[in-house]
Amino acid sequence: MDLRQIKELMAAMERTGTKRLKIKEENYELDLERHDDKFPAELATIPDYLKAAENREDRIFSKQEMPFFKATGASQPPTTIRNGQENEAGDAIKQKKGEVVKSPMVGTYYLAPSPDDPPFVKVGDLIQSDSVVCIIEAMKVMNEIKAGIKGRIIEILVENGQPVEFGTPLFRIEP
């Protein structure tokens, strides 16, 4: 079969509306498939679907429809601590006396090396700057966190076993 014959078959497929033609002979195999110039119906609806999702998201997160805003009369949603940004709770932590030790990584906070062991520190303990104050587990690795400041533990700000983000306040230390 030569190129001219293949073109004739393609033209015949176009005229008859045939979508697929498969020919198998001893010395060759030909598989022709014709697609319309238009996009398939599924693809044509994707922008409509995305627009509907945007509208749905706007409707779901509008201030008027959220119970939090109705109950409190708040004009903004509560903020979240992200990469060094502080919310009102973070500002309150800064305003109390003492230095704050923050998490240097994302992970799970542990106050003791194991559930059976005593905690590394408790409120009132005197510590050195190189004292281990907790462990943060990240990707199955236990990372010892040192105080970085000499003083007395005046407050433990995170509960044992809780997840923490980078910059989460862990302890308050009075130098």
From TrEMBL:
Name assigned to this protein: Biotin carboxyl carrier protein of acetyl-CoA carboxylase
Gene3D superfamilies per the UniProt record, alphabetical: 2.40.50.100
One Pfam family it belongs to: Biotin_lipoyl
InterPro entries cross-referenced by the UniProt entry: AcCoA_biotinCC, Biotin_Carboxyl_Carrier/Decarb, Biotin_lipoyl, Single_hybrid_motif
GO molecular function term, any single one: acetyl-CoA carboxylase activity
Function recorded in the entry: This protein is a component of the acetyl coenzyme A carboxylase complex; first, biotin carboxylase catalyzes the carboxylation of the carrier protein and then the transcarboxylase transfers the carboxyl group to form malonyl-CoA.
Keyword annotations of the record: Biotin, Fatty acid biosynthesis, Fatty acid metabolism, Ligase, Lipid biosynthesis, Lipid metabolism
Residue ranges constituting the Lipoyl-binding domain according to the UniProt record: 98-174
Single biological process term from Gene Ontology: fatty acid biosynthetic process
CDD domains reported in the protein's UniProt record: biotinyl_domain
Lineage: superkingdom: Bacteria
GO cellular component labels: acetyl-CoA carboxylase complex
Known pathway: Lipid metabolism; fatty acid biosynthesis
